[in-house]
Write a structure and sequence with these properties.
3 helices, four-stranded mixed sheet, Ribosomal Protein S8, Chain: A, domain 1
């Protein structure tokens, strides 16, 4: 945590809070436990044109790697599909993310079309992870991405 007079700037989520609290009220990080800023990483599943099965394996390995290296937010590029109706990979990725959310593998996820500053989930995530507000896809309703919050 960086200190500026009586205010800490949380290196995990970037939010300011009074020193007297001793713990970040946004992400519960403490100055002693968290020594790095929140990591946001973009991962491109679609770039090598994988099959649905390969894309799902990539998603799982990307989430595992994020947990290992301390990345908290993943922007997954899965594409939208050339049919104009949403491709098989997008549908499979989103079903998998729902399952991972239910079983506790991930904390939250937002489809790109809902990644807007008027969406309540997005607002909460921006409050916790302010760097998301600067993401190039915010408010673009990009149906080819998903935002994933990792444990």
């Amino acid at each position: 945590m960086k200190q500026n007079k009586n205010i800490f700037i949380c290196e995990r989520c970037g939010n300011p809070y009074p020193v007297k609290l001793g713990i970040c009220p946004y992400c519960q990080a403490t100055p002693k436990l968290k020594k790095h800023a929140v990591k946001i990483k973009t991962e491109n599943i679609e770039k090598n044109l994988p099959t649905v099965e390969e894309a799902l394996k990539l998603l799982s390995s990307m989430i595992s790697a994020a947990k290992t290296n301390g990345t908290k937010v993943l922007k997954i590029i899965h594409g939208y599909g050339s049919s104009g109706k949403g491709g098989k990979i997008k549908i499979a990725i989103q079903k998998s993310l729902n399952k991972k959310l239910r079983n506790g593998t991930i904390v939250e996820w937002i489809p790109g079309e809902n990644f807007t500053t008027i969406n309540e989930k997005t607002k909460k995530l921006i409050n916790k992870y302010p760097k998301l507000k600067k993401d190039s896809d915010i408010n673009n309703k990009n149906q080819g991405i998903s935002i994933v919050i990792v444990n």
